[in-house]
Amino acid sequence: FPLSQARAGIISTVEVLKVMEAFVNEPNYTVWSDLSCNLGILSTLLSHTDFYEEIQVFVRDVFSPIGERLGWDPKPGEGHLDALLRGLVLGKLGKAGHKATLEEARRRFKDHVEGKHILSADLRSPVYVTILKHGDSTTLDTMLKLHKQADMQEEKNRIERVLGAISQPELIQKVLTFALSEEVRPQDTVSVIGGVAGGSKQGRKAAWKFVRDNWEELYNRYQGGFLISRLIKV
């Protein structure tokens, strides 16, 4: 993909964004996954600049046509990749603050929590990440309650991976403290910290400080294993 050339300084990032705009009618999951990953890298790089909000507008513009086509509910004859694509696109739009996606995610989350209409497995991560990214302490408390109540480890892991999307500094600290609590299996702590590190500029700084402050405990917990290298990588 051209982004690797942009990162190498061969072509400008502007040219890459123009190429991305050409894919708005592309139905292929793999292509959108690649676009999403590369836009995520750009968002991370731009989070320390004045262009961060502009890249969020760009994400909304690029992903909204495919989001409108897919909708929220599966259509007859859809395959597994369509469900994956829907989750990817809605999560991307939700995180970027796409108004209609955020409103629908909040509505569906409320129904899910109240037991009126349980979210399908493929919609949970995009809904969770959306409501957390634009949520408050009540949102986080509700997510932690869902984690505690979850019967399946798969659901606990799904929640652990997205908690880092929360934006407020004091709530980020709450998530990091939760990562080392008895509520999280030792092998899953790294996923929570990694989610915080990847969630925002504030999250990256907080996660880095948290790892340094708790290095002895983390090192003793994971020494000699692959999780310590994964922790360092994230």
TrEMBL record:
Q: Which GO terms describe its biological process?
A: peptide catabolic process; proteolysis
GO MF terms here are: metalloaminopeptidase activity; peptide binding; zinc ion binding
Swiss-Prot/TrEMBL keywords:
Aminopeptidase, Hydrolase, Protease
Give all residue intervals belonging to the ERAP1-like C-terminal domain: 5-233
Assigned GO CC terms:
cytoplasm; extracellular space; membrane
Highest rank taxon of the organism: Eukaryota
What InterPro entries does the record tag this protein with?
ERAP1-like_C_dom (IPR024571), Peptidase_M1_aminopeptidases (IPR050344)
Family according to the record: Belongs to the peptidase M1 family.
Q: What is this protein called?
A: PSA aminopeptidase
From the broadest rank down, the organism's phylogenetic lineage runs: Eukaryota, Metazoa, Chordata, Craniata, Vertebrata
Q: Which gene encodes it?
A: Npepps_0
